[in-house]
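Q: Give me the 3D complex with zinc ion.
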Amino acid sequence: HFPHKEIEHYSSLHPKARHLQFSYGTAGFRTLGVVLDSVLFRVGVLAALRSKKLDGKTVGVMITASHNPEEDNGVKLVDPRGEMLEAAWEAHATNLANASNEDFSDVLYDFVRDSRIDMSKPSRVVYARDTRPTGESLVKALEDGLKAIGAEGRDAGITTTPVLHYLVRAINTKGTKEEYGEDSEDGYFQKMSEAFRKLVSGRPRIPPLVIDCANGVGAPIAKKLAEYLGETLPFVLYNTDTTTPGGLNNNCGADYVKTQQKPPPSLNGVLQKGQRACSLDGDADRLMYYFIDERNYFLMLDGDKIATLVAAFIVDLVRLAGLAEQVKVGVVQTAYANGASTKYLADKLPVRCTPTGVKHLHHAAEQFNIGVYFEANGHGTVLFSPSTLEKLEKHEPSTPAQSTALRHLNNLTQLVNQTVGDALSDMLLVEVVLAHKAYSAIEWNSLYTDLPNRLVKVHVPNRNAFKTEDAERRLVSPRGLQKKIDDLCKRYDGGRSFVRPSGTEDVVRVYAEAVLRSQADELAFRVAGMVY
Ligand code: NG1
Ligand code: ZN
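A: Here is the predicted complex, encoded as structure tokens.
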């Protein structure tokens, strides 16, 4: 019972333009929002089929282009545990998105047969979008895809990527012993804010935090969070305008801060010396902290600084709880992690490096009892393995100090959004650690000093000519290039540089770091010159 007629009817309402080619990459499908109509329809169909394949479990769909400009949009599928779509299905997504209008129904039929999808199974999909102007019509296209298969759809409205991931996990674990939380936005806020209150109770009042919402969906969600937190975390929101055209991610947001290495101009004159500020990205899954020091210098507390702060705190708690022998904490980074952060961490605990893309970090972090992963750009979270959760629940502390540390650890498991990087959950996590350690931004920053670094984009005729190994830290092709990079790096104190093709843009990225700012810049530009 393959619904040929319905598929053909709805698919004719969402024709694919002949000249367009799409690819499901690290960020799902992502391009100009106005060309994504056929893709969203087909993603609706695919999500419905994925749910059938997984015996009717709820699959998620998030419509966003994160930190990209406002006119871009994109879509990603979320698997039932709230994690990214299984890699094998990325290719199916690309295939279906690129089928011609005439062939679509046949290509789909073959896919259903080859993947042994039982069409009589139920299918359920929960979806959401960010504030982008193209989002509303893309949701309609997605809904037509669900209708074509007869799937049950649940519209989670305008919300953040991490809320959608949370919902998927909460829906699928409802009534089981792994219940993740109530399956609503309210449930998300309840769970997080309750854990936060417990973790900071009895500590001194937290000084006010400035939050840059990137003029995106983080703004309404942070506003709601404020109601749940009350006085426990005072914060002031900036860049909350989600209606003025062109505002999203424009001169603000986590990506702006990280790539420009300066605060959003809208915060000029706002930040007091030493005051903590942070920026979310357009879908609130990335977080950057920063502050202005005594000498008016801008200092960035990026994903690496967050990872080190959090990992060191968790290692301490595990030891204090008397669990050091049983619970191993590890950190996962990418090649973009500042060399100084890796050095700082490697003295304390195991550090692994994976290729760029959250799915790689996430999977590597799952190998640890407690895995902390962050990309330097501020996307990351902490994963507690199922056996660790059980240990934390069952462990019998033998002293009051052990009991306190254990309680903190258990509250952390509730505070952290373990499905995906979550700017707001990560922000609360950072605030907890700062409160426990009685650290200001200055003290946090002084844990180690970042090596000056430079990231350069190079437009090349064919970025696929660049192939890497060793978690993208070395080039295997073009042949001979890596040797030249190695030779050049040796001439710079603390010099490190690598080259990799971007997975999200048609460019090659060059990263370089060195002990001196001028040297890092020079190394980056010289390597860029060799790439071109
Ligand atoms: P690419 O374009 O493959 O470098 C970028 C970011 C990644 C990740 C993805 C997905 C950098 C250097 N790269 O990937 O960290 O966030 O986008 O959004 O920041
Ligand atoms: Zn994002």
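A quick observation: The domain at 186-299 is CATH 3.40.120.10 (Alpha-D-Glucose-1,6-Bisphosphate; Chain A, domain 3).
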